TrEMBL record:
Keywords: Transferase. Residues 27-100 form the Polymerase beta nucleotidyltransferase domain. Signal peptide: none annotated. InterPro entries: NT_sf, Polbeta. It comes from the Bacteria. GO terms for molecular function: transferase activity. This is Nucleotidyltransferase domain protein.
Length: 103
């Protein structure tokens, strides 16, 4: 099982923002914080597993919330529906679900 390389209190901030701004989506973490290759200030890469493109407003609001938060690093939000199949394959190779899609 993969482990996410962030402190529990930071994960809770991330989850709170996701519940507030993207409550209807599964969200996966990927990249260096999943691969255990992150440095202290490496960003956190998140993929919103959307079937159709998120609105510009949704993306702006969640990105602003992460920017305004007390997280010590940047959060990169990727919209699954707008990524290429090649990038989707990279995400799926090694990712961790940090928010389930509601039933």
């Amino acid at each position: 099982m993969c482990k996410l390389d962030i402190q529990p209190q930071h994960l809770e901030i991330v989850k709170q923002i996701l519940r507030t701004y993207l409550p209807d989506y599964e969200v996966r973490a990927f990249g260096s914080r999943v691969k255990q290759t992150a440095t202290t200030f490496s960003d956190l890469d998140l993929a919103v597993m959307s079937e159709k493109a998120l609105s510009l407003r949704q993306l702006c609001e969640v990105e602003q919330a992460f920017s305004d938060s007390d997280l010590p690093w940047k959060v990169d939000v990727v919209d699954w529906a707008t990524t290429t199949p090649a990038f989707q394959a990279i995400i799926m190779q090694k990712s961790i679900v940090i928010q389930q899609k509601p039933a």
